[in-house]
Amino acid sequence: MRRLDRYILGSMLRIITTTVVLVTLILLLFDIFSNLEQYIDNATSYRDIARLTAWYIPEAIGYALGPASLFAATYFLAMLHANNEMIVLSNIGYPFRRIVFPMVLLGVLLAIFQFVFSEEVTIKATREKELLGQEILGIRTSSENRNVTLRSPAGDYVVFAKRYDDENRTISSVMLIMLDSEGSIAAKIDASSGFYQDGYWVLRDVVRYLIDDEGDVVEAYKEPEYHNRAITMDPALFRNLQADITSMELDSAIRYVQRIKMMDANQYMEYASDLADRIFGGLTPLILIVISCSTVFTWRKNVLILSILTSLAIAVVYFVMQMVSMILAKQGIIPPVLGPTAPMLILTVLSVGVMAVRRI
Question: Whole-angstrom Cα distance, residue 187 to residue 215?
C-alpha cells in the first residue's frame, strides 16, 4: 500500500514539477515580450530586464500550479488505463477511490502550499517588481479615483466626490449630505472642491441648503469655504485600492474591506470579490485534480490524447466560469464570496456526482 502511494505521489510530483517549470518559462517569455516596448523606450539594460523578470517568477509559478495539477492527474490516470495497469490494480483489490485518494490528498497539500506561497513569497515579490519598475521604467501607480460615495461610520453624513486626487489629497465636484439622528436629510452642501487639513475636510465655493422635516429647502446661501470638524473621513478611503487589496497584508486587507463595507457599497463589492479570490484562489489545484479524476475514464480509445484534450477543455471552462462569476460578483449580482467559489462548487459537485455514479 505504501509502495502504491509512493508510486502515485512520485509520478504526480514529477509531472507537476516539469509542467510548472515549462509553463513558468512560457509566462516569463510572455512577460518579457509584453513589456519589450517599454524596455526599448527606456534603454533598459539586460541586467535590469533580468531583475524585473526574476521578480515575476513567483507569480508565474502561482499561475502554473493549477493547470499543471490538472495535466498531471489527467496524464497519470490516462497512462494507468492505457498501459492496463488499472486492470492489474483492480484485480489485486485496489478500487478506483483508493487510487485517487492520494491524488486528492496531494491536491489538498498543493492548495495549502499555493496559499502560503502566495502570501509569503508571491505578494512580496510583486511589490518588489513594482518598486523596481518605478525605479527603472518610471512607472507610477495611481490611486486617483472617480465617482466615490462614502458614508461616515456614525451614519451622520454622506459625501460624494466626482474625482479624488491622491497626490494633493483633494476632491472635486463634492456633494455633502448631512443627516439627523433619524437618518433624514438635514442639509445639503455642494462644493466645487475640497482639501484635507488638520484632520478634516475643508470645502470651497460652497452652496448650503437647509432642509426641513418635509424635505423642502428652507434656506440657501453661498460661502467661500465650509469648515466642519466632524467631516473627518480618512483620505485613504477615497483612494482606488483595488490593486492593493491583492498585495497588502492579509489582515490589513480584511480590516479595510470590513471598513469600506459600511461606507461605500460599490467599492465594497469589488474589493470583497478580489479579497475572496485571494483567499480561495489557492484551492484551484485541488478542484482541478478532483475534476480530472471524474472525467479521465470517459474514453475507451485513444485514452491519452482524448484525456489531455479533455483536461485542456476543462481548464478553459473552469477559468471562463471563474472570470464570469468574478464579473458578476464585482457588479453585485452575486455575493462576493461566490465570485471565486461558484465555479469550484459547481464543478466539484458535478465531479463527485460522476465519480459516485461511475466508480462506486
Answer: 9
Residue with grid cell 508565474, as numbered in its chain = 60
d(CA 231, CA 194): 11
Task: Sketch the domain layout of the chain as residue ranges.
Answer: 2-139+276-358, 145-237
pLDDT of residue 321: 92
Cβ atoms within 10 Å of 184's Cβ, excluding its own: 12
Q: What fold is seen in the domain 145-237?
A: lipopolysaccharide transport protein A fold (2.60.450)
* pTM tops 0.90: no
Give the Cα separation of 20 and 57 in Å (integer): 11
Is residue 303 scored above 70 in pLDDT?
no
Closest CA to 31 of 67, 6, 55, 47: 55
What local confidence, expressed as pLDDT, does residue 117 receive?
93
Which helix (DSSP H) or strand (DSSP E) does residue 172 occupy? strand 170-179
Q: Which three cell numbers stand for residue 200?
A: 478634516
**Eight-state DSSP code of residue 152:** -
Rounded-to-integer distance, Cα 334 and Cα 188, Å? 33
pLDDT for res 360? 44
Edge to edge, the sheet with strand 217-227 lists 145-151, 157-165, 170-179, 185-197, 200-211, 217-227
Average confidence score pLDDT of the chain: 83
